[in-house]
Design goal:
Number of strands: 0
Low-confidence stretches: 95-115
CATH topology of the largest domain: Rna Polymerase Sigma Factor, Chain: A
Mean pLDDT: 80
CATH class of the largest domain: Mainly Alpha
Number of domains: 2
CATH architecture of the largest domain: Orthogonal Bundle
Length: 203
């Protein structure tokens, strides 16, 4: 029953004391919140803590969700973002992300693995890693708009609601962030291609 309800409907049921609505919201949204917090902080333990705090806020009814100001996912990402920023203030040396344990995302999908082209697979794997590191290296105010708009596919308006800023600010930050990524990835891609050429010469 709950699985077919919208986020807003589940929220209303949750406020009325329906525990099943909380479970449904958690199952639907916790993985996205975790990925966002993980990419923002680079720390698995921080991401886990953020997920727990976001849903504790929901359970306690401490939040003030207003559907006229943005979508429910944007509301949750806004809470998560605030939690991550608080942890940045407390601990400026968050543990680096252990990529090997990151929900398997660092591993190529089976459909992309071609055992006849190990060098091609290696290049694709390096590209995935390269993009992840480039995003992680962005300043926080650029990183968060890339994660919200490009990874989680929020609209500019939803991202603005999550960040508590104007839509124009989201647009300008995203434009600058993408330009920085293109610049950094271009330089790194050239380095990868040079390594691949060197390996080819040895084959």
């Amino acid at each position: 029953m709950h699985a077919n309800l919208s986020d807003d409907e589940l929220w209303r049921l949750l406020r009325a004391g329906d525990e099943g609505a909380f479970v449904a919201l958690y199952r639907r949204r916790q993985s996205g919140i975790y990925r966002f917090a993980l990419r923002m902080s680079g720390s698995e333990s921080t991401a886990e803590d953020v997920v727990q705090e976001v849903f504790m806020i929901l359970m306690r009814g401490d939040g003030h969700y207003d559907a006229t100001r943005g979508s429910f996912p944007a509301y949750l990402f806004g809470i998560a973002r605030n939690q991550v920023l608080r942890r940045f203030e407390k601990d400026r040396f968050l543990a680096p992300l252990n990529e090997s344990e990151d929900e398997g995302e660092a591993t190529l999908p089976a459909s992309l693995i071609t055992h006849d082209d190990p060098l091609g697979d290696l290049a694709r794997q390096e590209t995935i890693e390269m993009v992840r590191q480039a995003v992680q290296a962005l300043p926080v105010h650029y990183r968060e708009v890339v994660l919200l708009c490009d990874l989680h596919e929020l609209s500019y308006a939803e991202a603005a609601a999550a960040l508590g800023c104007a839509v124009g600010t989201v647009r300008s930050r995203l434009h600058r962030a993408r330009a920085l990524l293109v610049e950094r990835l271009g330089a790194q891609q050239t380095a990868i291609e040079r390594r691949a050429d060197a390996v080819q010469c040895l084959v």
